[in-house]
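Hi all, long-time lurker, first post. I run a small reading group and we've been trying to get comfortable going from sequence to structure in the token notation. Rather than ask abstract questions, I figured I'd post a concrete chain and ask someone more experienced to write out its structure so we can walk through it together at our next meeting. Sequence below, copied exactly:
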Amino acid sequence: MMIQMLLGAVASAKLDATMTEGFYDDGSTQYIGYATGIGIGSMSSTAVAGGYTLEGCYDAISGTNTCYVIISGFGADPGQSFFTSVVVGGTTKTSASASYLYAGGQASWSWSGSFGLDGSGTSSVVIT
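-- Answer (accepted) --
Happy to help. Here is the structure in token form:
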């Protein structure tokens, strides 16, 4: 039963990939993870189910810490509940608890705190 539940969770994932973490410090904020906008990190896959693209999954560390998931390719606002949760390494965040923004085909979910990335090595990223 447990194996079926785990297989079902993986089968329903919108994205199940491995992130090679990158790091960038702009002098006031440290960005850690994967972000196309600033050219850090890489993903084994950026293809999100439905024809969308993962553009970012990262921590922004400054006076306050914030973590982000950014997905592009939408023709209209997909809504905050486009996904249920994201698990990065061992840290789970839910879309319901996120701050949400949509503009120009790109949706962004952000949370206070961090995914706990360190800028070296790899982390699993599962969006369901």
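A couple of things your group might point at:
Residues 100 and 125 are 19 Å apart (CA to CA).
The mean pLDDT is 92.
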